[in-house]
Structure of Histidinol-phosphate aminotransferase:
Amino acid sequence: SKLVPPHIAAIEPYPPGKPIEELERELGIVGSIKLASNENPLGPSPKALQAIEEKLETLHRYPDGSGYYLRNRIAEKFGVPMDGVVLGNGSNEIIELVIRTFVQPGLEVIVPNPSFLVYQLSVQCVGGSLVFVPLRDLMIDLEGILKAITEKTRLIFINNPNNPTGTVLPRKNFEAFLEQVPKDVLVVVDEAYIEFADPNGTFLGFDYLDRRGPWVVVTRTFSKAYGLAGLRVGYGVMDPAVADYLHRVRQPFNVSTPAQAAALAALDDEAFLEKSRTLVREQLPWLYQQVQEMGLDFQPTQANFFLIRMPVEAKVVYQAMLQEGVIVRAMNSYGLPRHIRINVGTPQENERFIRTLRKVLKDLG
Ligand code: PMP
């Protein structure tokens, strides 16, 4: 239909999974586990839950459209100006806001590939041009990105650690890269999984905001290490001048009252954060070892998920695992048809995953 603009018709839909209950009903199974969306298997921070409860009686009011307390706390915690913090309906919304603010048809956005799919989707929505730079040995190719910059480049997305590879850029390389990017190109650093990364050496804090000057945006989320994916709250840290433009574009009440309250409480729940990190750090070596014993290649990660290469099509493994009640992600939509991605679960979930993978691969011959 001529109603649909060609750049919208060209978009491949982001494949949302069915609700677990529905999948189970169709397959006639119960008690399945989901390791497909990089969620926190420990649930939400108990302090966040309590904070939500305290806000329930204010639900007839609109949320604080300025996100005052949460922005203030984030600014305090990370030593950045409050005017440079923008809240979003998940960090997805920050990504989308940056794109809607700065990209128009005819302008280019550089996206490493494979990386998080929302970058491409949002660029396509505004009719911008995507310039893909393939990963090199599963690492973001900074030199390749520098070479891809043209007069039309407006944004560069860097996901650190990168989804789906779990890889982190060496800090030195990243800093050298930032100095070489022209100052009128905005670099978006998506740190959705940074809380899981090794704090020694490779951790990228906010200090490079100073080095880079105004044109860098760092995005973070409460969906992963903080366990609040269902509430949809994330944030971006940037120069206040950039934040000012994003505020003009965003919806006035984009983050709900419970989400703001829970995020504020979660930010201060250091014990929960540490528990989440420790779970991942303790479970990964065991998972690696089990996968290795099966003779499978895997990509060591600094996030809460990792890639495993299958001896057959990953989609087939996905289907077979699903029948056994273990939900993993087949990476064909990321251009990795032989890889599955799983996030670290509880020890029981991880054991069940390994047991099921062994069985499924044996059955598939
Ligand atoms: N960035 C990356 C790399 C992600 O993997 C995700 C979640 N899948 C997000 C951003 C978005 O997270 P949220 O919108 O829940 O903050």
In short: The chain has a mean pLDDT of 93. Residues 88 and 267 are 15 Å apart (CA to CA).
